[in-house]
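Hi V.,

Quick status before I head out on leave. The structure for the redesign project is tokenized and pasted below; the design run finished overnight.
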């Protein structure tokens, strides 16, 4: 439960900062890129190529999420 509250607090803070003009679209893109790096976020195709795996193998046996209508692999372990 604590993690959900923390996530909500962070999201609310970012929204307030955006609405007040303290952060802009470029800043949000930088944040998304940073978080993508923490997650080691890659498209299924890129992940498959980098790890010499088949697309279907990645899809079946890796942590795949749908984000903005695109399927990504999270591999940050």
């Amino acid at each position: 439960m604590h993690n959900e509250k923390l996530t909500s607090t962070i999201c609310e803070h970012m929204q307030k900062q955006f609405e007040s003009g303290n952060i802009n679209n470029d800043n949000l893109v930088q944040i998304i890129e940073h978080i993508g790096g923490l997650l080691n976020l890659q498209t299924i195709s890129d992940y498959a190529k980098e790890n010499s795996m088949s697309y279907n193998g990645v899809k079946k046996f890796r942590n795949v999420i749908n984000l903005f209508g695109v399927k990504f692999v999270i591999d940050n372990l």
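Above is the designed sequence. The CA atoms of residues 48 and 61 lie 11 Å apart.

G. will cover questions while I'm gone.

Best,
W.
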